Amino acid sequence: MNQYVAIIVTVLFLALIVQFTVTHKLKDRYAFLWLVTAAAGVIAALCIPLLNRFALWIGIAYMPTFVFLITIIFILGLLVRQTISLSKQADRIKTLTQEFAVLEKKVLDLQKQTEGRESK
Q: Which residue has the higher pLDDT, 81 or 94?
């Protein structure tokens, strides 16, 4: 029974990701990652007995602990990836702000020059 619930939940998650991708609520760059994650969830739900045996083989007596461990590692990986992306965006914003300030200064200088020529 638990396996059926897991399969239903993961298939619904996969359908939700597909729907977000089709309606462009999820960017293509991230859609692939989430589609692979959802597909891995479906496969894991189908292979619960195999996961139980694998968890015992590596020394984890309670399989949900193994699932939580994998989930935490995955979430940490996502957080690192998002932090790197956020750092790159902050650098880009800083560069754009500096370039904008330089261009604004040039425009103001040009306006002053044209005003000086018109008043003569």
A: 94
Per the CB < 8 A criterion, the answer to whether 59 and 69 are in contact is: no
Q: What is the CA angle 115-119-120, rounded to 5?
A: 120
Domain span at residue 83 reads: 2-119
Six token digits for residue 15 = 């359908």
Measured distance CA(81)–CA(5) in Å, rounded: 31
Chain CA centroid to CA 29, Å: 8
pLDDT level of residue 111 (50, 70, 90 thresholds): very high
- Token duo for residue 61: 């007596």
Q: Which of 77, 66, 65, 67 is nearest to 6 (CA)?
A: 67
What is the Cβ-side half-sphere exposure of residue 119, based on CA atoms within 13 angstroms? 6
Number of folded domains in the chain? 1
Asked if 66 contacts 60 with a C-beta cutoff of 8 angstroms, the reply is yes
Q: How confident is the model at residue 98 (pLDDT cuts 50, 70, 90)?
A: very high
Asked whether residue 73 carries a pLDDT value surpassing 80, the answer given is: yes
> Phi and psi dihedrals of 14, rounded to 5?
-60, -45
